[in-house]
Amino acid sequence: MSITFDGQVAIVTGAGNGLGRSHALALAKRDAKLVINDPARNADGKSAAEDVAALIIAEGGEAIANTDSVADFSAMEAMAAKALSKWGRIDVLVNNAGQLRDKSFANMDMADFRTVVDVHLMGSTYCTKAVWAAMREQRYGRIAMTTSASGLYGSFGQANYSAAKMGLVGLMNTLHLEGAKYDIRVNCLAPIASTAMTEQILDESQRVAMTTESVSAALVYLVSGEAPFRTVLCAGAGSYAATRIYETEGIFLEPQDQTPENVAAGIEAILDPEGQKGLADGGEQARKFAGKFLAGTPSAS
């Protein structure tokens, strides 16, 4: 199987440097037309987005730059409208833009918490909303959210970042349910790569191994025609894995036995992974619990 994006249009946010730049160049090499979004400027004062767009054009591709913040919904609507006006469609959205404001929660300013959530979670939401109608109308779309091991598992000093990144998993889950019938596939990438955002936490040997290109290989698959559905794909240093959410079978307590003490007594069985499974939606849990109640309480039937 050869993955190509010939005739397709992709928006990549935060694409001026780091992972976003790598993602954009990887998509351009496979013939996608690119919208390069990034408000940042390089050390020479030039627009990072414009530099990447110029590089793609110089190599024979098509690209336009956008220097607006993803935290500005009106600007993201205008960005999507410009892509539609120029090319007539939007096939791929890579929500990659982000920033850090690390500090322990006890010392974290709430403005810094809000800033990180606004860029990572709300920025991804705004960009997705801006392209959603077009993808529904053309009955095709591929959207990648960028989550993180920090969100999936936690990371000291990153309460804001972790909350935003886990929020994107929830957003993916619901958008999958709403978009599947239009062949809009929404997935999450959980990357680790050597970029400006990680230079303080990776040692030299890790930086050498954790190339952006190895992560972009996973990203390109996630937004291809053969993309999976609501998958959290983890990538770094040439390793690829999936994170999944499962619910244990758990226990049922009769109404007269539903006490904190009996929950405590049953915690080992509640945590037992045997029989655990992934659920299709939130309603499946409700049906499961109701079924246990009906099966365990004769008077209820």
Ordered list of secondary-structure elements with their pairings:
Layout: E1 9-13, H1 18-29, E2 33-37, H2 48-58, E3 63-66, H3 73-87, E4 92-95, H4 110-138, E5 141-146, H5 149-153, H6 159-179, E6 184-191, H7 204-209, H8 212-222, E7 232-236, E8 239-243, H9 260-265, H10 267-271, H11 282-296
Parallel strand pairs: 1-2, 1-4, 2-3, 4-5, 5-6, 6-7
Antiparallel strand pairs: 7-8
Features:
301 residues; alpha/beta; Rossmann fold; 2 domains; 8-stranded mixed sheet; globular
Number of strands: 8
Percentage of residues in DSSP E strands = 5-15%
Roughly how many Å is the radius of gyration?
22 Å
Number of helices: 11
CATH H-level superfamily title of the largest domain: NAD(P)-binding Rossmann-like Domain
Summarize the main sheet.
8 strands, mixed
Low-pLDDT segments: none
CATH level-3 fold name of the largest domain: Rossmann fold
- Round the mean pLDDT to the nearest integer and report it: 94
CATH class of the largest domain: Alpha Beta
Identify the overall geometry.
Answer: globular
* Span of the ends, CA to CA: 53 Å
- Helix/strand order, N-terminal first: EHEHEHEHEHHEHHEEHHH
| Fraction of residues in helix | 40-55%
What structural class results from the helix and strand content? alpha/beta
Name given to the CATH architecture of the largest domain: 3-Layer(aba) Sandwich
